[in-house]
Design brief:
By secondary structure, the protein is α+β, with helices and mostly antiparallel strands. The chain has 1 helix and 10 strands, in the order αββββββββββ. It has one domain (about 10-185): minor pseudopilin epsh domain (minor pseudopilin epsh fold), CATH 3.55.40. It has one helix at about 10-65, and strands at about 65-70, 75-85, 90-95, 100-105, 125-130, 135, 150-155, 160-165, 170-175, 180-185. The strands form 2 sheets. A 5-stranded antiparallel beta sheet has the order 3-2-1-5-6, with helices on one face. The chain starts with 11 loop residues before the first helix and ends with a strand.
């Protein structure tokens, strides 16, 4: 538009162009930001469980007793229990909850992570440790286990993680990339 001398400001057309560009940039950025936030929530939940596994191992060794990490799909939480005299388990500490939009599961993953590699994934919601911090099963006498894997997934986007426990009790974190698991923390 032609302006008279001394007039300042933006024309309606200039304001509409800037508003349209702002809407386009926002439409592109918001889905990417939501995806990144979802990935952060899943990863944060996995790291919390990873820490709980380490703590369960330390409790077993520190108390010279069996311990276990017990996870619940109904409450999306985990807690540590330590075996007391007489064989019963007692919860120690509080529950650790998964973040909003995160649950236990392996989604569309067709093969297992860690020591379950090459097999169908099997969710292990209770992980047992002996008094030396080694993963064991619940048989009598207990045997050593090398394929405990706990799977965590996003309920919004396709983010899948697994925490595998090796035969020596060391946990590792795996991420699923559309067709295979890659090690993130070993």
């Amino acid at each position: 538009m032609l302006r008279k001398s001394g007039e300042t400001g933006f024309s309606l057309l200039e304001v509409l162009v800037v508003a349209a560009l702002s809407i386009i940039v926002t439409a592109i950025a918001v889905p990417n930001a939501l995806n990144a936030l979802d990935a952060y929530r899943v990863r944060s939940s996995v790291e919390s469980i990873y820490s709980q596994i380490g703590l369960a191992r330390m409790r077993a060794v520190g108390d010279f007793a069996h311990s276990r990490l017990v996870c619940s799909t109904s409450t999306n939480s985990c807690h540590i229990e330590v075996q007391k005299e007489g064989g019963s388990y007692q919860q120690e500490g509080g529950d650790v909850y998964l973040n909003h939009g995160v649950s236990f599961g392996y989604g569309s993953a067709s093969s297992g992570a860690g020591n379950q590699s090459g097999n169908s994934p099997t969710q292990d919601l209770t992980i047992y440790f002996n008094s030396r911090g080694m993963p064991i099963d619940t048989n009598t006498p207990p045997g050593f286990v090398s394929d405990y894997v706990l799977y965590v997934q996003s309920s919004v986007y396709a983010h899948y993680y697994a925490i595998g426990i090796s035969g020596n009790g060391k946990p590792s974190i795996y991420r699923y990339d559309t067709s295979s698991w890659t090690t993130e923390v070993n």
